[in-house]
Design brief:
about 300 residues; N-terminal domain of MutM-like DNA repair proteins; 11 strands; DNA-binding; Ribosomal_uS13-like_H2TH
Length: about 300
DNA sequence: ATATCTTCCTGGGGGC
DNA sequence: TGCCCCCAGGAAGATA
């Protein structure tokens, strides 16, 4: 569920409330949420206990806490999947229905003592992963000040808001592929942080159809798409992210309000606002896509003209 | 090797 | 009220 803006909102909250605090106790309430920790929940708990959070870093939708106090450098990785939440809570707050992992933090005045991982669908999780130097040079992703990345996230490309990324690299990566444009921008190994909402929003803003084949995409189209991705995610971040319901909230349980600014996603049957501005009328349509949905404006994002038969 | 499909889960909402 | 089906911010691993 959460895409780059939502994960970055969470990262900032963790940085504020958890950085420099020691993890005094770890409780795994559902081992399915630590299944990516291959040594098992007991090892997860024992290794993590006593560590101090040195920094909170993000690349794409991956979030991690660099830890002090381990023999070999490692990070506590958190991925929110479709429904994960990281919440800062007082110890006496009642357990959430889907509470999966509880971290008890060292005392700090006027600061809640627990970091909780709550996840309804269990597609997300927490695990420890060794830190390795980033393979793609210089510092890590946006929201990062680290030259290291967890091994488990080392295949993830630089994200939309990473200043070390270039449009030309995106163009070349897309041209190397033979697939639909939307599939490509959802591929976290091409560009990271984009999910179904912001893919549709950026494609709408750029006036491109996600069904376009990447092998024929042009530089100016990639440039438009890149600008749109950066713009939509920057605005979403400023709004605290997109919340359709209580499943996405920041570390303090508050919703973001970017849902009201969406132009395509979830707007099936509603007027395309850009067409309206231009004195035209068209309705956003929804089409099945990869087991989910794509929302497009048939006027702003025209289907490619059918090639005439030779 | 590359591209696409299947699977991991729970719960809300609509139709009957 | 209940049941069944569809749908949902993701991505690893299997399969073609």
């Amino acid at each position: 569920m959460p895409e780059l803006p939502e994960v970055e909102v969470v990262r900032r909250g963790l940085d504020k409330w958890v950085r420099n605090r020691r993890i005094d106790a770890v409780e795994v309430l559902d081992p399915r949420s630590t299944r990516r920790h291959l040594d098992g929940p007991e090892d997860f708990q024992q290794t993590l206990t006593g560590c101090t959070v040195a920094s909170v870093v993000r690349r794409g939708k991956f979030l991690w806490m660099e830890l002090d106090g381990l023999d070999t450098p490692a990070a506590l990785v958190a991925h929110l999947g479709m429904s994960g939440q990281l919440l800062i809570e007082e110890s006496d707050a009642p357990d959430e229905k889907h509470l999966k992992v509880r971290l008890s933090l060292s005392d700090l005045a006027d600061t809640p003592a627990e970091l909780r991982f709550v996840d309804q669908r269990i597609f997300g999780g927490m695990f420890l992963s060794p830190l390795v130097p980033t393979a793609d040079s210089k510092a890590g992703g946006a929201g990062s000040i680290s030259a290291f990345i967890p091994q488990a996230a080392s295949h993830i490309a630089r994200d939309v808001l990473d200043p070390a990324r270039s449009v030309e690299d995106l163009y070349l990566s897309l041209r190397k592929k033979t697939t639909q444009l939307k599939r490509a921008i959802l591929d976290q190994e091409i560009i990271s942080g984009v999910g179904n909402i912001y893919a549709d929003e950026a494609l709408w803003q750029a006036g491109l159809l996600g069904l376009r084949n990447t092998a024929t995409i042009r530089r100016n189209e990639v440039s438009r798409l890149n600008d749109a991705l950066i713009d939509v995610m920057t605005r979403a971040l400023a709004a605290g992210g997109t919340s359709f319901d209580s499943l996405y909230v920041n570390v303090n349980g508050a919703s973001g309000y970017f849902a009201r600014s969406l132009n395509a996603y979830g707007r099936e049957g509603k007027p395309c606002l850009r067409c309206l501005d231009n004195g035209r009328e068209s309705l956003i349509r929804r089409d099945p896509f990869m087991g989910r949905s794509s929302y497009t404006c048939p006027v702003c994002q025209p289907r490619p003209r059918r090639q005439p038969r030779a």
